[in-house]
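User: I've been trying to design a sequence by hand for this structure and keep getting stuck. Would you show me what you'd pick, starting by listing the structure so we're on the same page?

Assistant: Good idea, let's start from the same input. This is the structure you sent:
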């Protein structure tokens, strides 16, 4: 993928993630802020409307206070009081939507007279007893059925008190709930449903109540004079506020949240459009930035291709002080330096060819050695010296495998043959003191480093068998385990002291040559070629012997030449 495309993809991802995060954060912030503003504004609007309802109720209460000051009522003149109430009903009763009788006067027996021939019995009604027995200036009743039109009305029960403060009667004033409905219906706020109710669930308006919301509010209204309630289904919010001149009447409005947050949604959409335009603008800017970065890099890439084709006259000459300009100058310097190194390498190759010619001339010496050993072997054979024949033959084989025509990697069979030649020579030297055994259990063909077993066998003789001053045996094993080859050289010599064994193991781990140069050298060569998992380990017990183990991965033919060629 081109660098320019990568930059554009990264910018696009960053812009998209940033845009989504900003939108989410902004939408939540706007929603919270607007919701708080809407709640505050809604509550304030309801308070204004509840004040209007309260003023209307206050007007009725003022009328009752004025009526209570009538002389006939204060002196307890029943006939004059009833006539006075009848006159009021005749003149202003119909104004409040209750033609049967808006006002009534009565005494502690609960009989309220609307006129000389008309009365109502409220002795069994709860609001009457609350007014007569309590200390309240007035009591508002729950909705009752009007005798005029069988519609629901509410009543203000106003106790009549003597100068001593004793209650001797009452005044009743009918409140048309239709009038309340007219006042409430004028509240048009987010297309919501408005009504008046009390905590007991009594509805004081003729229509518009949300039954589900009203039921939920029955326990909420006692918590405070105003507030709002989110419905459980999240579809609507109910605002409520207490109406003045009442203790338990609340103006309530249920508004669907979709309507309530419509302005917020519109604002969020506009903000989204603005942010989208900004994101597009930034994306276009990122294209220009990407091109300003990738164009010089493209020139550099073309220059590198020319260098690969052998054109050493390439020069970028990118002006500026930024990183790309500095990189271009470094590139020009590098090309010049590489050109100089190529020329020097060519000169070195010519010198190498001359050295190889000298090496070919020097190969006469090994052939001379082989020919001399063959001549000695024939002479010994002619004289019948079998031991000398064996020794010369083993020495010749030892040298041939050691040289191996300059190869570092040889078959496992050759390495074992090399060790056998060495042991034959040592066997003649140490006579009956030295014995050896070979155990080979290998199915596949392994190519291994040459001269890795002979140093181990030499150590076993010099440091294990020879100090023992008694006959000893060396076991050489080659065992295949899957794709691995396990080589072991074990002796029953004097072993290694614990302190020296720990020091030897540390030298093997660190690859630092100490007293056991040959063993460390073998381990380093194995690790260099075979890598992790291969190498030399040593186990020994003082007085019982030592076992040196080599673990090799399977090396196919040809791999060694690639590494060492």
């Amino acid at each position: 993928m081109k660098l320019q495309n990568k930059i554009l993809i990264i910018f696009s991802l960053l812009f998209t993630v940033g845009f989504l995060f900003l939108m989410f954060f902004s939408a939540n912030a706007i929603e919270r802020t607007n919701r708080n503003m809407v709640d505050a504004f809604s509550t304030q609007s309801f308070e204004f409307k509840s004040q209007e309802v309260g003023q209307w109720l206050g007007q009725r209460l003022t009328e009752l206070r004025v009526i209570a000051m009538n002389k006939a009522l204060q002196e307890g003149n029943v006939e004059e009081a009833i006539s006075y109430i009848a006159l009021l009903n005749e003149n202003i009763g119909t104004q409040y939507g209750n033609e049967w009788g808006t006002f009534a006067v009565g005494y502690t027996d609960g009989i309220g007279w609307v006129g000389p021939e008309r009365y109502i019995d409220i002795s069994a009604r709860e609001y009457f007893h609350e007014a007569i027995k309590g200390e309240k200036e007035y009591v508002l009743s729950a909705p009752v059925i009007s005798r005029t039109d069988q519609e629901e009305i509410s009543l203000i029960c106003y106790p009549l008190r003597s100068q001593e403060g004793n209650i001797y009667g009452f005044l009743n004033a009918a409140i048309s709930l239709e009038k309340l409905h007219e006042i409430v219906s004028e509240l048009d706020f987010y297309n919501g449903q408005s009504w008046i109710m009390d905590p007991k669930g009594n509805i004081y308006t003729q229509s518009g109540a949300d039954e589900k919301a009203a039921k939920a509010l029955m326990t909420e209204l006692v918590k405070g004079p105003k507030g709002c309630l989110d419905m459980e289904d999240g579809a609507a919010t109910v605002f409520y506020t207490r109406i003045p001149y009442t203790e338990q009447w609340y103006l309530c409005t249920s508004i669907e949240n979709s309507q309530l947050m419509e302005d917020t949604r519109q604002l969020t959409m506009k903000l989204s459009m603005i942010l989208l335009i900004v994101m597009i603008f930034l994306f276009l800017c990122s294209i220009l930035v990407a091109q300003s970065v990738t164009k010089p890099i493209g020139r550099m890439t073309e220059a590198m291709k020319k260098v690969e084709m052998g054109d050493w006259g390439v020069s970028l000459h990118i002006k500026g002080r930024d990183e790309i300009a500095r990189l271009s100058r470094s590139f020009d310097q590098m090309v010049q330096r590489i050109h100089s190194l190529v020329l020097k390498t060519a000169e070195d190759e010519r010198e190498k060819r001359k050295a190889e010619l000298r090496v070919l001339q020097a190969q006469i010496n090994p052939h001379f050695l082989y020919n001399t050993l063959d001549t000695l072997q024939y002479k010994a054979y002619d004289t019948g010296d079998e031991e000398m024949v064996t020794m010369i033959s083993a020495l010749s084989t030892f040298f041939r495998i050691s040289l191996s025509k300059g190869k570092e990697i040889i078959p496992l069979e050759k390495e074992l043959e090399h060790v056998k030649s060495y042991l034959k020579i040592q066997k003649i030297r140490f006579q009956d003191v030295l014995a050896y055994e070979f155990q080979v259990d290998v199915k596949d063909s392994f190519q291994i480093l040459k001269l890795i077993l002979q140093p181990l066998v030499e150590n076993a003789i010099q440091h294990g068998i020879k100090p023992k001053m008694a006959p000893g045996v060396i076991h050489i094993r080659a065992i295949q385990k899957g794709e691995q080859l396990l080589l072991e050289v074990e002796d029953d010599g004097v072993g290694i002291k614990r302190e020296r064994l720990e020091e030897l193991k540390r030298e093997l781990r660190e690859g630092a040559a100490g007293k056991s140069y040959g063993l460390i050298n073998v381990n380093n060569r194995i690790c260099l070629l075979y890598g992790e998992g291969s190498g030399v380990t040593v186990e020994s017990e003082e007085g019982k012997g030592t076992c040196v183990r080599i673990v090799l991965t399977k090396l196919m033919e040809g791999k060694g030449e690639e590494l060492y060629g």
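That's my pick for every position. To get oriented when you compare it with your attempt: The longest strand covers residues 152-161. The mean pLDDT is 77.
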